[in-house]
Write a structure and sequence with these properties.
Helix content: 25-40%
Strand order of the largest sheet: 2-10-9-8-7-3-4
Number of helices: 15
CATH architecture of the largest domain: 3-Layer(aba) Sandwich
């Protein structure tokens, strides 16, 4: 074994995957080397790895350069206050939840949220009311929330203290956030938004508007996902009606006491880049995106899902495999973000130039699509099972392992999530019914990973196990 397995493994991966159509947004240094300011930071990055000594302010009590920098961030995004997050969007999601809700509050939450949202709900001991996600049959993917179901939930759960949503989702599709915010205000509910993939929104008329400007109370953005910022960096933006004192406390509580100045400097640069170069560069990116979308759709069997224009969702006809296309692109040195049964997701940033689009187009033109054929696997509509106890109550209960075949009628002690599509079949505290079991068996039979279950020799229900609650009374 190598004495430097991590270093050598990462460098090997970077060498073999020479076209990044996934995170992070800087695309392997290009985002820094593209501007004089970025080059200066890039050349001095390791020198920025300092601690909180006199003269460089204190992250947990900013009064100098960190305070000034965060104020510039707030001014740019038009928030009441904005924060740098050196523990990623996860820390921002936890800070949002803890500063907005109290133990026992009911919250309406999108079923397709990031796991950190569900962890926050458990830790804060909230009572979640789940919004269904809608499966788009044409593209065979879960593209957005079911708005009819959502509006019904609002009317039926007027005591809920808030709504937690993702904007956009992994497919670049956005719910009607403007309408959601309007309805939430009518009921006196807060709106918290995990906008991890939306830090660049609002930079062009063809991009969705920023969740902050649409009136959300709190918004988390992963700057590293779409902007020239280091991995693990994110922003938290706070609206007018939010108690800043609480947010200050929880941001500090969920953040390391040794914050990285390298990360903070990269976040400042990402904001500066948008301010100084964003409009011009996003105009060029969207022009390239639209041009090559037309070429790809006209000359191959691939359709590109209508989503925000800095993202391609390559959709294949029935009978063709998204995972096989994903692997084909990888063999050609193109790193995609993710895939499902019928789709491959690509994320662009302004640092993907004309040559990058040409390579993608040429690679798809050379693809033997007949080699990507396999039995069609339809994404099934996922119902929301009956809840027997709140997720936080599950944590303290005695658990046992049973075979999937014997699990019907029992309360799940885990979240069971097929990935893709990443929407939970069942959440902890919900009753496992026959439909859930059929769903799990369906995904396993189609070689789709299912998080939350354990397997033994084969994938029959006799050899698949799940943790359940022994006594839920």
């Amino acid at each position: 074994m190598s004495k430097l397995p991590l270093i050598e493994g990462v460098l090997k991966y970077v060498e073999e995957n020479n076209l990044s159509l996934c995170m992070p947004g800087h695309k392997g240094t290009l985002g820094f080397l593209s501007t004089p300011e970025g080059r200066r930071l890039y050349e001095k990055f390791i020198n920025c790895d300092i601690t909180e000594v006199d003269g460089v302010d204190n992250y947990h009590h900013p009064e100098g350069i960190i305070k000034d920098s965060q104020e510039l961030l707030s001014k740019f995004y038009e928030s009441k206050k904005s924060y740098y997050l050196v523990n990623g969007s996860t820390s921002g999601n936890l800070a949002m939840i803890f500063s907005s809700f109290n133990e026992g509050d009911e919250v309406i939450v999108e079923r397709n949220c990031h796991r950190s949202i569900f962890n926050g709900i458990i830790m804060r001991k909230l009572k979640p009311i789940y919004i269904k996600n809608k499966i788009n049959k044409e593209y065979n993917a879960p593209l957005s929330i079911d708005m009819e179901h959502f509006l019904c939930l609002l009317r039926e759960n007027k005591n809920a203290k808030g709504i937690i949503l993702t904007y956009p989702n992994y497919y670049g599709v956005c719910a009607d956030l403007e309408l959601i915010v309007k309805k939430a205000k009518e009921y006196g509910m807060k709106v918290l938004v995990d906008s991890a993939h939306g830090a660049h929104f609002g930079m062009h008329s063809k991009l969705p508007e920023s969740a902050v400007k649409l009136g959300a109370d709190m918004v988390v953005m992963s700057s590293h996902k779409t902007l020239p910022s280091l991995t693990q960096t994110a922003y938290l933006h706070v609206g007018e009606e939010v108690d800043i004192g609480k947010v200050d406390f929880y941001v500090s509580a969920f953040t390391t006491t040794s914050p990285s100045y390298m990360l903070m400097c990269s976040m400042e640069y990402a904001r500066f880049y948008l301010e100084e170069y964003g409009k011009t560069d996003y105009e060029a990116l969207i022009r390239r995106s639209e041009e090559y979308k037309g070429k790809i759709e006209a000359e191959t069997i691939v359709r590109i899902l209508p989503s925000e224009p800095t993202r391609y969702v390559l959709n294949l006809p029935k009978g063709y495999s998204g995972s096989k296309l994903f692997n084909y692109l990888k063999l050609k040195g193109i790193t995609a973000e993710m895939c499902d049964n019928s789709n491959v997701v690509l994320i662009f940033s302004p640092f993907n130039d004309e040559n990058n689009f040409k390579k993608l187009y040429k690679t798809l033109m050379e693809c033997d699509f007949q080699g990507l054929m396999e039995e069609y696997k339809e994404v099934l509509t996922i119902n929301i099972p009956e809840s027997k106890m709140m997720p936080f109550q599950v944590m303290e209960k005695q658990k046992s392992k049973v075979s999937l075949k014997e699990a019907e009628g029992k309360v799940s002690a885990v979240n069971i999530v097929p990935y893709p599509p990443g929407i939970p079949v069942i959440m902890m505290g919900e009753i496992i019914d026959k439909y859930c079991i059929n769903m799990i068996e369906y995904y396993l039979s189609n070689d789709i990973a299912v998080l939350g279950i354990q397997r033994s020799n084969d994938d029959s229900s006799d050899n698949v196990y799940v943790d359940v609650i022994e006594d839920f009374n």
